[in-house]
Write a structure and sequence with these properties.
CATH superfamily: Winged helix-like DNA-binding domain superfamily/Winged helix DNA-binding domain
Number of domains: 1
Order of helices and strands: HHEHHEEH
Largest sheet: 3 strands, antiparallel
Strand content: 15-25%
Number of helices: 5
CATH class: Mainly Alpha
Distance between the termini: 29 Å
């Protein structure tokens, strides 16, 4: 049952065009900072940060803080659901 709940959490997180754009960007260029992701998807720093937190909370992204910079990358191994979504994008 927990696999179903985890899949549901990930599906809800992925059901947003901005978060899909983030995944697409990170699939081609990772790790990336919040600022570079925000610039790529043409969204404010604060909104981008909120989307990244949602993706991190459902184990789609890993975050690594180095000094004052937070870098994001796809979680390894990449979940089958995320692989499927990235294949469609």
């Amino acid at each position: 049952m927990s696999d179903i709940k985890e899949t549901e959490r990930q599906l809800k997180a992925l059901a947003n065009k901005r978060r899909l754009a983030i995944l697409k960007f990170l699939a081609s260029k990772e790790p990336a900072s919040v600022g570079s992701i925000a610039q790529e998807i043409k969204l404010s720093f604060k909104s981008t940060s909120n989307h990244l937190l949602i993706l991190s909370a459902c184990d789609v992204l890993d975050r690594e803080q180095t000094s004052t910079t937070v870098l994001y990358r796809l979680t390894r191994p990449v979940s089958p659901l995320v692989k499927t979504v990235l294949g469609i994008l």
